[in-house]
Amino acid sequence: MRLPLKVSRKNLAIISLMGVVLITILSLFALPKLTTQYSLKQFLPKDNPLLMLDEKSRQTFQLSEVQPFIITAKINQENGGNWFRQDRITELEKLTDLISKYPGVRNTLSLANIQGAINNNQGLSVGPLLKNLSIDRWEPETTSNPLIAPTLISKDGKTASVIANINRLTNKELLALRQNLQVTATAALPFADVQMGGTPAVQTDISLLLQSELRNFVILGFLSCFVVLALIFSNFAPLIISFVIILCANILVLAVMAVAELPFSILSTTIPILTTIDVVSLCIHTLLRYAEERKANPFESHENLVSKTLKAIIRPNLIASTTTMIGFLSLLTTNVPLIREYGVTAAISIVIGWITTTVLLFPLLLFLPGPRAREWAWAKARWGLYLFRRSGLWTTGIIIVSLALALKGGNLSWSAKLFDDLPQNHQVRLSTETIDRELGGMIPVDIEIDGSKEAWNDPSLISRLDSLSAEIRQLPSVGSVVSLPDLVAAASLHNTRLPASRSSTAEIYFLYSLASDSPLKNFLNADSSKTRISVRTQDLPGNQLHDLVENVRQMTEKAFPDMKVQTTGMGSTIHHLNNELSRELIFGFWQSMVAIIAVLIFVFKSLRWSLVACIPNLVPPAALLGFLAISQTPIKPSVAIIFSIALGLAFNNTVYLLERLRAMQKTKNSRTLDIEKMIWLEGNPCLISTMTLLAGFSVFMASYFAMNRIFGFYMVLSMLTGLVGDLILLPTMLKSCPWLLRPLVWKKEKVMATAASFIFAFVLLFNHQDALAQQLTVDKVGQEMSTRIKAKDETFTASMKIIEADGSSKDREMKIWRMSSGKKDHSLMVRMQKPADLKGTALLATMKNDTEEKWIYLPSNKQVRRLTGENSKGGILGSELSAEDFDFNRDSSATTTIKKEMEIKGSKYILMESDVTASSPNYSKVISYVSAKEFLPIKAECYDKQGKLLKVIDFGGYKKLGGGKFRASSIKIKNVQNKRGTDIQLADIKLNQNLKASSFSPKALSDD
Question: Would you give the DSSP letter of residue 423?
Fold first, then answer.
């Protein structure tokens, strides 16, 4: 009967080995899909009230959520001087313009293209500031302007920055763009030391470092674990067994991460190490148990010893892996995606590690020579006898020290900085420090002041805000301050720095609304009830930054006691959120404890045994609290997660010890507890297993990142204190108080366990595309549209409602005259009627042979001023309607094709696509929905230069006018990217009135 059994075992072993090897080989094909990811916001919770308030503020002031790249360029010592030279500004301008054309870049800003308004005898010039100033005025005009210095140029004029505002990009696109920017800027500015900074640069550089760190961790983790194995065993079989299992387990874990699209973050780079030390720990306990069985049964066959060993060890290995997994799964209780994702990934790695080890140990042990442990490794742990002689003293001492450390832990340090985790002397760290030190600071803080409608049209309030901004600039550690008065002063419309009347203020606001991308929207909401002070500070410790933000808030409340003041921005939220999360994680180890107790009740079938198992595992968290407080290590979420992780790992030794004690008690069928024998048999395996954990976690101290080095140090500390709890406190406590585990005669304990299952549903969506209809030609549709729409001139009244992303709005009413006397000869006059502060303000724009000229009439001083400069892009009067959206008469070089005919709600439409890349300053293509019956445009979808949908324009309420012409009485524009909208109602429309060219002259502007 034994021969068939041997054959069956070998066949099963071969099948198991081949199955795991095959799955591992297939898993290799998934590894290229692995990605790395880093973000400053990864540790922020979802749906937090502070973050929702922050988001609302961003919408109110139309602030981009996507952070820019910041290129810093410092004049090197060899060239000397500063940036205020024509040749250097010319090179900076070329670089700024070149970068703006890169895919993914929305726009760029630097000293070379910063817009400004200069009021002189030639007129009101709005455009690049330096082009409108003489060279000798460059330095005093820019370094004293808070809109420019120190953000775009340092106070000493030696360091300049180029801000590249980008679209939302993938990590791969960010990396490619970052590399292009670095190469381009370095080549363009050979006289300067160029560095890449900003949040995207931090994100891309750290992602690359994570990849390098991952490789280093894998190599060092393997080496450290093999050194431990070589110290334990005298032959090569254990090394081969461990190597094969570690390799297969890591490949399988990485493949699961790739398939599940779980990226490597700054936390999950630890996964290969966790997998490796978990597998090695399981292997060590198994291989040492084999050595023990071999010593106890020297005449037993190798196959029988393998079978007996695996049967004896499978339960403790499973329980140890389960408690470790619970420690990581406890992280799921947090509301932070990164930490939840890390908890899931680590738990998966523990499960895969246990399965792989369990399946492969059988064939590898069966086919390879039996492991031979060195004498010290499998010998009885006689050092336990010394502990038992003073068991009461050891127990009391450890408990007292643990309590003292836990009490000391009430004085933790909450002084972490945001960027102190970046690698020292790395390019991105140096650039960040340059921005922090010379270019206005890295940490944004926004002060929002909320008053009544049109409150910020009041010159007295603007003057008061100007004084407050000046006071804030004097505070230590404040790098830059920009507020509404700085923009008002920059307009330079009047003899005084700030306006003296509400009408003068309204005229300045109107002037900004003519700009292509008005900065006013970032500091004033639609109805002028809210304004914002933009403060940037240095990267301060969390407690100091909190005090600074609180000081600024109190100063603002004192200056505006009748208004609502609130603080937003990274500087006012991120430290508070991190501290809140850290406290939750530190004391969240109780959740792990409760879950582990529930598992152990099921395992031991005894509440008392499970509670006793918890006592030694209170030593690591107590020690961690005490040492963190004594060393004043700044608390961050990456440090706080150690508590739950360490607890799960610390239970490993406890499980092996108590399982051995339980097994001996059942074998002897005795109520006595043989504590000495327990420690003799399991003491050294637990000690060796902990050495493996120490070797593995010590690898983290070679990390690029301070976060991982701190993580490694405190994990090593928690493992050492866990060893004290398990190998000293637990046996001495049981020796002194055996009644803790002796069976109770009066009570029979029974525990029922329940299991839960999860069902995942997947839904497949199929899209059906209609065939293209080509019955109509582009020329025919164009001709029909032109017949119905084109007019030589027209007049109408437009009521415009500009709707901001937060739902607030402002209304304007104007009279508009338009004339097109030729394909390249257009004139437009706009005269404001509402609001009252702007009544009479008028704008004239003429286009002749591609040359555009603009004039503005300001009723406050009865002057007509010419507008010069480069601000032809952008929306009309700050709306989402641009000139090209409603110019049906322009000569366009667009390539248009008919895509299909379609039916919507019973009406038929022609879908047309126009490639306007060459002819449009804003769009790459426009998709138009044209009524197939009336040949009138009903809707237009406008795509930006990156090919993403930008705006949707709906035309409605068409009215037939004289000459068979049609005009929409309602136009609705929705910008899907910034969430702004504009609703326009047209009335009193008159076409072909034979308007005269004299009606479109600067003189006609002043004729009210």
Answer: P
Phi, psi of 673 (to 5 degrees): -115, 115
Among the ranges 99-113, 205-219, 677-691, 881-895, which has the highest mean pLDDT value? 99-113
Query: Where are the strands (E) in 483-585, listed by range?
Result: 530-537, 564-568
Residue 764 half-sphere exposure toward CB, CA atoms < 13 A: 1
Bridge-based pairing state of the strands 949-960 and 105-110: unpaired
3-class DSSP state of 911 = strand
CA distance 374 to 232: 6
Structure tokens at 141: 């005009």
Instruction: Please check the confidence at residue 209 and state whether its pLDDT lies above 80.
Output: no
Tokens representing 11 are 């066949």
Other Cβ atoms closer than 10 A to 259: 12
Note the Cα 335 to chain centre separation in Å: 15
How many other CB atoms are found less than 10 A from the CB of residue 384? 22
Higher pLDDT, 45 or 237: 237
E-only strand ranges, 426-559 = 443-450, 478-482, 530-537
257/241 Cα distance (integer angstroms):
24
Q: What are phi and psi of 416, to 5 degrees?
A: -70, 150
Phi and psi torsions of 605, nearest 5°? 55, 40
Phi/psi at 62 (5° precision): 50, 45
Question: Sorting pLDDT into bands at 50, 70 and 90, what band is 747?
Answer: very low
pLDDT of 99 higher than 90: yes
- Position 119: which residue type? N
pLDDT at 383: 67
Assess contact for 913 and 937: CB atoms under 8 A.
no
The distance of Cα 661 from the centroid of its chain, to the nearest Å, equals 49
Q: What is the mean pLDDT of residues 625-647?
A: 80
CB 604 within 8 A of CB 662: yes
Residue 443 pairs with which residues in a beta bridge? 537
- How far apart (Å, rounded) are the C-alpha atoms in residues 866 and 1001? 11
- The encoded tokens of residue 111 equal 């000293």
Nearest Cα residue to 298 out of 207, 192, 407, 372? 372
Measured CA angle at 338 (ends 336, 343), to 5 deg: 95
Q: Long-range contacts for 185-191 (Cβ within 8 Å, ≥24 apart)?
A: 185/71, 185/73, 185/95, 185/99, 188/91, 188/94, 188/95, 188/98, 189/73, 189/91, 189/92, 189/95, 191/75, 191/76, 191/78, 191/79, 191/88
> Taking 60 as the threshold, does the pLDDT of residue 883 lie above it?
no
Which letter does DSSP use for residue 616 in this model? G
- Bridge partners of 929? 911, 939
Angle 512-513-514 from CA coordinates, rounded to 5°: 90
In this structure, what token pair is assigned to residue 673?
């507890």
Look up residue 77 and give its two tokens: 């010592």
Chain centroid, CA 136 distance in Å? 43
Supply the DSSP string of 643-700, one letter for each residue: HHHHHHHHHHHHHHHHHHHHHHHHHHT-SS--HHHHHHHHHHHHHHHHHHHHHHHHGG
How many Å apart are CA 698 and CA 730, to the nearest integer?
A: 26
Per-residue pLDDT tens over the stretch 443-458: 899 999 998 888 998 9
Query: What is the C-alpha to C-alpha distance for residues 632 and 763, in angstroms, rounded to an integer?
Result: 51
3-class DSSP state of 563: coil
Secondary structure E strands in 363-513? 443-450, 478-482
Average pLDDT, the chain: 80
Radius of gyration, alpha carbons of the chain: 37
The DSSP letter of residue 68 is P
N-terminal to C-terminal alpha carbon distance within the chain: 115
For residue 170, the SS3 value is coil
Closest to 1000 measured CA to CA, from 831, 884, 860 = 831
Band the pLDDT of 312: cuts 50, 70, 90.
Answer: confident
